Amino acid sequence: MLSIDTSPSALLGRAGELERLAELVGGARNRRGAALVVRGEPGIGKTALLDEATRAAAGVRVVRADGFEAESAMPYAALQRLGTPFAALIRDLPGPQASALRIAAGLDAGPPPDRYLVGLGMLSLLAAAAEREPVVCVVDDAHLLDPESLEVLAFVARRLEAESVALLLGMRPEPRADVAAAGVPVLDLAGLDAPTAVALLNRSAADPVDPYLATRFAEETGGNPLALIDLALEFSAQQLTDHSLAVGPVPIGLRLESVYLRAVDALPTETRRWLDIAAAESTGDPTLIDGAARVLGVTVDAPGPAERAGLATVRDRVRFRHPLVRAAVYNAIPAGERRAVHAALGGVADAAGRHDLAVWHAAEATVGIDGEVADRLEAVADAAGGRGGTASRARLLARAAELSPAGPVRSGRLLAAAEAAASAGAAQLARELLDRLEGDALDPVSAGRVAQLRALIAIFVADRERILTGPSTMLRAAELFHGIVPALEQRALVWAFDLTLTVEWAIEGVTLPELGQRLAAGVDVAGGPLSIALRGLSAHILLPYEQAVPVMRDALDMLFELDEEALLEIGTFGVALSMALWDEQACVRLLERIAGAARSRGRLRDLDTVLWLLGLIELVRGDPAASGRYIDDVRELRHAIGYDAEQVVNGSYLAWAGAPVPQVEAIAEAVLGTGFAGAWTIAMMGLSVRAIADGHYRDAFERLRPMIERPFLQVTYQQMPEYIEAGVRSGRADDVRASHARLAEFAAHSGTPWIRGLAARGSALLAADEEAEALYVESIGHLAESTVIGELGRAHLLYGEWLRRMKRRREARQELRAALDIFERVAAPAFAARARRELEATGERVAPRQPGGAADDGLTPQEETVARLAAAGRTNAEIGAELFISANTVDYHLRKVFRKLGITSRRQLAEHTSEG
Asked: Name one Pfam family in it (predicted).
C-alpha cells in the first residue's frame, strides 16, 4: 500500500524552509504582510511543506484555494473560492473595488473591470478580514489557476506590507506562472541532500537498504522526497538490487507514474473506472464524480479499494495521493473511454448548472470539428470577457476556433482571441493566434483588424521592422475599414498619428505630408470626437501655424469634454497638440485627468504610460526633480504589475541629472536600434540641454542642427530655443535667426506665457546690448506667469550673466541668486553649477545648500508620495486607491513619515510640505 507519513518528522531536511514559512505566518500575526512562492518540480515537497507550515500555525485563519486544470479558463474561479469566506465584508469596501469584485465573480452586471482593480479590491478585502483575525492564504498548484486569479493574487502578493496577511503560493516552474508571479519572493525547493535522502529512504523502505544502494538511489532521484518514499516501497517489494539502477537515468515523473499505474492495475475494474472519472474531473467535486459514475454504471462502493491503496481519498472533495497519480491515471485512459468520461461529466455539470465546467468537459470529449461545442465555448468566452477575463476569453476562443470548420467563423474566433490576448498583455500569444489565420479568407474589416493589431503588438515585443512601418500599416487598416466601419477607420487614423510619434523621422512606408492628407480625408467620414481629433491633427501637419492654432485648440478643448472612458481611449494625442500650442498647463491638466481615469478603473498599463508622459513634460518644463518623482511612481507601478522596475530608463532625465554623457548616448543608440526614434530624440534633447548648461555650446549646436534640419512637428518646436542659445553662444547667430523668427511666429499666434517668454529670451540673445535688457526683463515676466520653472531659472541666469558682462555686479547677483535657487529646487545640477560659478565671478561667496525637502528628510519615494497626498487632504482610503496599496499600508507609511519629520499631525505635515 502506498501511503505517506504526515507527521512533522516526515519533513526531513526542511528545517530552514519551515523556518522561513513560520516567519511569514508570524509576520501576519504582527501586521507584517508578506508573500512567498514555493516553487519546485513534482514530488519535491511543496504540498507537504505548505501543509506543515499551516498545520503548525496558531492564532491565524487559514483559507485555501488550490488550482485545478478544469478551472484554468474560468476567470476568477480560484479568486472567488478564496474570497467566499469574506464575502460579507465586500459591502464595506470602496465602491469601485466592491463593484469590481462582484462583477468579476459574476454576481453583478456592469462594465468589465480591469484585473488590477479587482486586485486592489482583493487586497482590501483580505486586509479587512485580517482586522478581525490574521489571515494566511494558501494556494497550491497555482500554475493551474485561471490566469486572472493568478495575476490578481500575484498583484496582492506584491502589495502586501502592513496587513495581517500572509500569502503562500505553491507552483511548478512553468513559464506562464513564472511570468505572472514575477516580483514575488521565491523559495525554490531543491532535492534533499544525500545524508537526509538516505535517512528518508531507509525510513520509508520495508527492509533495510544497502548503504551503497541507498546513496546511489538518492543521487539518481536527485533527492526528490516523493520518489524516495514511493519508489523505495516499490523497489523493496520487487527486491531490486543495485544492478537494477545501472540502466541509466529515467525522469522521476515517468518512474513514479509507472509505479502508480502498477498499483492501479492491481485494483478491481470498477475502482479503476471510478479513478478514471475522478482523474478527468480535476476539481475533485464528489457530486460531479458520483453523478458521472452513475451515468457510466460504476458502483457506489468503487472508491473503497483506491482509498485503502493510498491512491485517493474521498472527503469534501476527491484528492489523489499526488498530482502525478492523477496524471498517471488520466494519461492511461484509452482515448475513446476518456471522451466518454468527459461527456458524462459534461452532462452532469450541465444538469447542475455548472455550464462553464460543462463546456470544458464537452470540448475535452470532442475530436475534430464540432460546431455546437464551438458555439458553446464562444458563449462562455463572451461571458468571461464580460467579467473582465480577457486572458480566459482568449483561451476559450482559441479552443472554439480549433473546433470550428475553416472559414469566416473560425477566422473570426481566432482574430477575437488574438485581440483578447493583446488586451490581456499576452502579446506573444496574440501574435501566434494571428499567425494561424488564413489571410485570403478574411473579409476587409477582419483584414484591417489584423493589420491594426500587428502594428500595435509590435510596440510591446520591440519588433523593429513593424515599429518603423507601423504608421503605414495603420493607414492600410484604415483603408480596409473605409466605407464599411467609419468609427474603426477614424480610430485607426488617430492610432497612425500616435505611432508616428514613436518613430518620428525614422518612419517607413509613408511621409508626414501623406499622413496629414490621409488624416484630413478621414475628418468627414463621420462626426463626433474622432472627427474633431483628425481635423486638429491634420491641421498640425498640413496648415500654416496661424491657421492651425484655432483648429488645434478646438481639438484640445474637445478632450476636456469627454467622459473618462473616451478620454482613456483617445486622449493622449492631446499631448502633441498642447505642445504645439505651447500650452504646458493644458497638457498637464489633460494628463492628470487621464491618470485619474486610469486609476479609478484600475488600468495600470494606461497609468504607466501617462505617468511616463508626465515625467517627460516635467523635463520640458525644466523640472527634473518633478520628473524624477514621476519616474519613481512608474518604478513603483511596474513593481506592482510585475514588470522589471529597473527598466525605467529615461535618457533625457539621466542627462539632466548629471549622468555621464557616454552612458546616455549608449542608451539612446540602443533604443534607436529597436525603432523607437522618438525616445532617441528625447535623449538627444536632454544631452543638448546638458551641453548648454556645461557651456559646451558648439557641441549642443552640432547635436541640434541635424534635428532642426529634418523638422518633425512639435518635437522640433521644443528644440528651437536650445538651438538659438547654442548658436548665439557658439558664434553662429546668423544660422539660428530663421529658428528665432519661427519662435516669434509661435508667440504671435499662440500667445501663451511660455512661448512669449522663450521668444523674448531668444530676442535678447540676438539683440544688441542696448536692446537686450528690456527683452530679458520681458522674458522673465512672461515665464513667471507660466509653470515652466526651469525656463524661468534659465532666463534669470542669462540675464544675470549679461548684467555681469555689463559690469553691473550687484544687479547680476540678484538674478543669479534667483536662478541658483530655482536650479537647486528642481535638482538641475549642471545649471546650478553654472549659476554658482557666475555668482562667484561677481565676487559673492556661495554658501553650501542648506538641507531641506523630502529627500533630505530621508523619505523613500513611496513615503514622499504618501506624505504629499496626505498633506493635500486625501484620506488613507483615497491614497491607497491612488497608489494601489491598502489603507493599512498608507497608515504604516504615514507613521514613518511623522517619525522622520518629527511631527505628529497632518496639519503639521501640510505646513512642512508648503515650506519645502
From this structure: AAA_16
Q: Which residues contact 626 (CB under 8 A, 6 or more apart)?
A: 618, 826
Angle, helices 335-351 vs 355-364, to 10°: value is 160
Residue 455 carries which DSSP code?
Answer: H
Q: Which pLDDT score is estimated for 289?
A: 95
How far, in Å, are 260, 460, 478 from residue 475 at the CA level? 60, 19, 5
Burial class (CB in 10 A: 0-12, 13-18, 19+), 4: middle
pLDDT for position 848: 67
Q: Which three cell numbers stand for residue 464?
A: 523593429
Domain boundary residue, one of 188, 213, 233: 188
Does 101 have pLDDT greater than 90?
yes
Specify which residues 318 forms β-bridges with: 314
Question: 787 with 622: CB under 8 angstroms?
Answer: no
My answer on whether 620 and 756 are in the same domain is: no
831, part of any domain = yes
Residue of 235, 225, 232 whose CA lies nearest to 193: 225
Listed residues 512, 542, 572: the one ending a domain: 542
For residue 676, is it within any domain?
no
d(CA 818, CA 530): 45
CA distance 420 to 831: 48
pLDDT over 70 at 856, yes or no = no
| Together in a domain, 422 and 308 | no
Distance, CA of 453 to chain centre? 19
Q: Which residues, 6+ apart, have CB-to-CB distance to 805 below 8 Å? A: none
80 lies in the same domain as 179: yes
Q: Please tell me what DSSP assigns to residue 36.
A: E
C-beta separation of 299 from 277 below 8 A: no
CA 429/CA 380 separation, integer angstroms: 20
How far is Cα 519 from Cα 513, in angstroms, rounded to an integer? 10
Instruction: Quickly tell me which residue has 481629433 as its cell.
Output: 533
pLDDT tens track for 136-189: 999 999 999 999 999 999 999 999 999 999 999 999 999 999 999 999 999 999
pLDDT of 566-607, one tens digit each? 999 999 999 999 999 999 999 999 999 999 999 999 999 999
The number of helix segments (H) and strand segments (E) in the chain equals 48, 7
Q: 840 and 887: one domain?
A: no
Residue 503 Ramachandran class (φ > 0 left, ψ -120 to 50 alpha, else beta): alpha
User: What 8-state DSSP symbol labels residue 643?
Assistant: S
Confidence at residue 441, expressed as pLDDT on a 0 to 100 scale: 75
Question: What are the respective helix, strand and coil percentages of the chain, to the nearest 5?
Answer: 70, 5, 25
81 inside domain? yes
Residue 877 is predicted with a pLDDT of 87
- Ranges 68-82, 213-227, 656-670: which has the least confidence: 213-227
Report, as an integer, the average pLDDT of 807-816: 95
Domain of 791, in residue numbers: 750-845
Q: pLDDT of 237-293, one tens digit each? A: 444 444 344 334 446 667 778 888 888 999 999 999 999 999 999 899 999 999 999
In the numeric block, the cell 555689463 is attached to: 806
| Class of residue 479 by CB neighbours under 10 A (exposed 0-12, middle 13-18, buried 19+) | middle
Strand arrangement of the beta sheet that strand 165-171 belongs to: 61-64, 135-139, 165-171, 34-39, 186-188
Give the CA distances from residue 289 to residues 45, 133, 272, 711, in Å, rounded to whole numbers and listed in that order: 28, 35, 13, 70
